[in-house]
Design goal:
With about 220 residues, the chain is of the alpha+beta class. The protein has seven helices and eleven strands.
């Protein structure tokens, strides 16, 4: 008789145990990083792109990044002076909320801050990003586009038509003004025009070290 293909039932006790073990492992890893590395930096990421973050991790492979599971990371550091793993770490724990992460490194503080202030990667904007420039397109032919894409451009709100097989703007068209919050359609138009307006960047906000404590950068 063939075995039933129905999903196996996993008891709540088992899933709770697995979740608890994962949290305990993360707590141990964060505390081990405190012991191993001299410096802790609190960072945030603008215009997050996984590919660029992977590149940063590769370039800083001798350091350790923690991103996500904020409550568990804060618990590992200690939320109060009585609970903190090392003196002053409860101040770091207060900052571990929202879209932030922790960088543990033995690299020199000046080198680290300079490297991250200079590192950035331009990217195409997404819906919700703010336009950094005003983009206006004049009436006329747009030979950079294939005739096949003309219906798509129209669907994005561009006043286009085909004139003798050439995609043509029937009137002047303003894609965006500097400061505008971009819609999905306007962000898509900017990408089609190959105009990047976003920058992936890891921004360091605070630094902690055992000998100097916590300070804002």
């Amino acid at each position: 008789m063939p075995k039933s293909k129905r999903s196996k039932v996993v008891t709540l006790a088992r899933t709770t145990k697995v979740g608890f073990q994962a949290k305990e492992t993360l707590i141990q890893e964060v505390q081990a990083a405190v012991d191993e590395y001299a410096n802790i930096f609190v960072f945030s990421i603008s215009d997050m792109r996984n590919s660029h973050l992977k590149d940063v991790r590769t370039k800083w492979k001798r350091s350790r990044f923690f991103l996500g599971k904020n409550k568990v990371m804060a618990k590992a550091l200690g939320k109060t002076p009585e609970e903190e793993y090392r003196p002053g770490l409860h101040e770091v724990a207060k900052l571990v909320s929202g879209n932030v992460g922790l960088l543990f490194t033995n690299q020199d503080v000046e080198y680290t801050t300079n490297w991250f202030s200079e590192f950035g990667a331009t990217e195409y904007s997404r819906s919700g990003n703010t336009a950094t420039d005003t983009v206006q397109l004049p009436k006329g032919g747009m030979p950079q586009f294939s005739h096949a894409i003309e219906p798509h451009l129209r669907s994005l709100g561009m006043p286009t038509s085909l004139q003798r097989g050439v995609v043509t703007l029937d009137k002047d068209f303003e894609v965006c003004k500097a400061g505008d919050v971009l819609t999905a359609e306007r962000a898509r138009i900017l990408k089609l025009l190959e105009i990047p307006m976003a920058t992936f960047q890891v921004k360091l906000s605070h630094h902690w070290a055992a000998d100097s404590g916590m300070r804002q950068l």
